[in-house]
C-alpha cells in the first residue's frame, strides 16, 4: 500500500512492512516476511499457491471469504485464519462490508511442524472468544519491525513463538472478561488510535464509554500489555518519527501536531523512547 506524505499523515498502523531475513535468521529463528494493517477496498482479492510462507490474519472489522485447500469458509469480524501458503488458497473482502485485517507472513525454524499440529486440531478459520491478544501481538511485531536493530530478528522470533503458542491453546485459554468487555476495549482502542493527537483524558474516556476509569485502566493494561498513557505516547512518538523523516516541519510544529502541547516535554519523551534527540533522529534517518 502506498504511503502519501502530506499535511495529514496516514494512521501509523495502516501500513505494510516487508522484511528480508538474514542468513542467521533463516538458519536459527522464526522470521518475519511481511506484516501489516489493511483497510480493504471493495475489490480486495488474493489468490496464491506454492508460496513458501505461513499466514496468520485477524479480521478486525467487516467480513470476507477464504477458499483453502478446496474448502470455502466465511470469515467475519473477530475471526482469525492461519494457513500454509504453499497450499492453493484465495481470500477476498466482502463487497458490501469490506474487511479490515491485521496480518503476519512468517517462516523458518519449526513453522511447518507447528502448523501441522495446529491443522490436526483446528480448521483454518478460528473463532476466539476474544481476538484482542492476537491484535496486540501483531501490533507489537509491527512496532518492533518499523526500524531494524541488532536484536530485532531474535525478538521477532520470540513474538512469533508466542503467536503460535496462542494458536495451539486458543480453545483452552480462560477468558476472565466477557465478550461485551472485550468489544468495549476494542472500541476504546480504536478511538484512541484515531484521536491520539488530541487531548485524551482518562475521565473523558470513562464517561464516553460508560465504564469506571479504574476498571478501564486495569483491563486495558491486561488486554494490551501497556497502559493507556503508554499507548498514546507510543502512537505520538511513531507519528513524530514519520514527520521528522518525511517533512521539514520544525520540532515545535511536530510537537503540536502530535498532541504534545509542551515542546520540552515532547523532546524528553522522544529521547526517552529513541535514545536520541529529535534533530539527531532526523539527520540519521533522512533519505
Verbal overview:
- The chain is built from 11 helices and 10 strands.
- It has 287 residues and is α+β, with helices and mostly antiparallel strands.
- It folds into 2 domains: 16-168, Jelly Rolls (Sandwich), CATH 2.60.120.280; 176-287, Arc Repressor Mutant, subunit A (Orthogonal Bundle), CATH 1.10.10.
- The strands form 2 sheets. The protein has a 6-stranded antiparallel β-sheet. Strands 3-8-5-6 form a 4-stranded antiparallel β-sheet, with no helix packed on it.
- β5 (63-68) and β6 (71-76) form a beta hairpin.
- α3 (132-145) packs antiparallel against α4.
- The protein is globular and about 60 Å long.
- It starts with 15 loop residues before the first strand and ends with a helix.
- Mean pLDDT is 88; it is low at 1-13.
| Structural domains: how many | 2
Strand order in the sheet with the most strands: 1-2-9-4-7-10
Low-confidence stretches: 1-13
CATH superfamily of the largest domain: Regulatory protein AraC
- Kindly state the number of beta strands: 10
Count of alpha/pi helices: 11
CATH architecture of the largest domain: Sandwich
| CATH topology group of the largest domain | Jelly Rolls
Overall residue-averaged pLDDT value: 88
Percent helix, as a range, is 40-55%
Q: Indicate the CATH class of the largest domain.
A: Mainly Beta
Helix-strand pattern: EHEEEEEEEEHEHHHHHHHHH
- Between the first and last Cα atoms, what is the distance in angstroms? 20 Å
Using the CA coordinates, give the radius of gyration: 20 Å
- Main sheet, how many strands, which sense, barrel? 6 strands, antiparallel
- The structure class reads alpha+beta
Sum up the overall morphology in one term.
globular
**What fraction strand?**
15-25%
